[in-house]
Design goal:
alpha+beta; Helicase, Ruva Protein, domain 3; Tumour Suppressor Smad4; five-stranded mixed sheet; 4 helices; 16 strands; elongated; disordered C terminus
Length: 225
């Protein structure tokens, strides 16, 4: 029911409430593959709505969701660790904020591709998504990378990286890994990208409040031009 209310609210905010309908048996399936996580719902619904739009279909069916799940290479959602904060909707804004406040980062991930620095990402939140889709926290543009490829999870005093059932996997050295506790200096390989787990310098540390963009839909109201 929470998934249904969340999606209907976002459709209303995005202006798609009157141009797309969602069959009732779709919501349990969405929950099964997203665990009710708004960011994962965003990715799945964005894919499903685009699929429906391309096929001139204004009804989201189980078949469309299953096609999207298959193209995303997703498996049913499974919580790998206990006490991982979930995302919550901030009713006072058009964003979704994380269930815990931003943290002062002491660790970061440095991304290189073919020896060239791509970016540095302070680990200042409980969860970071990595993948090809622009909705991810760390976006890696390459065909071999899944839309949602991996996830970095901060859990108490440890930081983990988890493969999100990607097609081509993540590697620590030559070893393909599913769930790995990161150690300083670890270099995780995802396709042609190298992600180095590193300590932040004192001057780099700062609090950052992160928010997630609301769902963006390709549908527009029939009453608008």
């Amino acid at each position: 029911e929470d998934v249904k209310n969340y999606i209907n609210h976002r459709l209303s905010v995005a202006g798609g409430k009157h141009t797309v309908s969602i069959e009732s048996d779709v919501f349990p399936l969405i929950h099964e593959y997203t665990g009710g996580r708004p960011r994962l719902i965003n990715i799945l619904m964005d894919h499903a709505l685009t699929c429906a739009f391309v096929n001139s279909n204004e009804r989201i069916t189980q078949n469309i969701i299953l096609i999207s799940i298959d193209e995303l290479n997703w498996q049913p959602f499974a919580q790998p660790l206990e006490n991982i904060p979930v995302l919550r909707e901030d009713k006072n804004t058009d964003t979704i904020s994380r269930g815990e406040p931003a943290m002062t980062a002491s660790r970061k991930i440095i991304v290189h591709k073919n020896g060239r620095l791509i970016g540095e990402y302070p680990l200042n939140r409980p969860c970071f998504n990595i993948g090809r889709h622009s909705d991810n926290d760390i976006v890696l543009k390459e065909p071999r990378i899944s839309r949602l490829h991996a996830q970095v999870i901060l859990n108490d005093s440890e930081i983990f990286i988890q493969d999100m059932d990607s097609k081509n996997g993540i590697y620590n050295g030559e070893k393909r890994i599913d769930l790995h506790a990161l150690q300083l200096g670890d270099v995780i390989t995802i396709a042609s990208f190298e992600l180095t787990f590193s300590r932040m310098h004192e001057e780099e540390r700062e609090d950052v409040t992160e928010s997630v963009n609301i769902l963006q839909y390709p549908f527009q109201s029939k009453h608008k031009h």
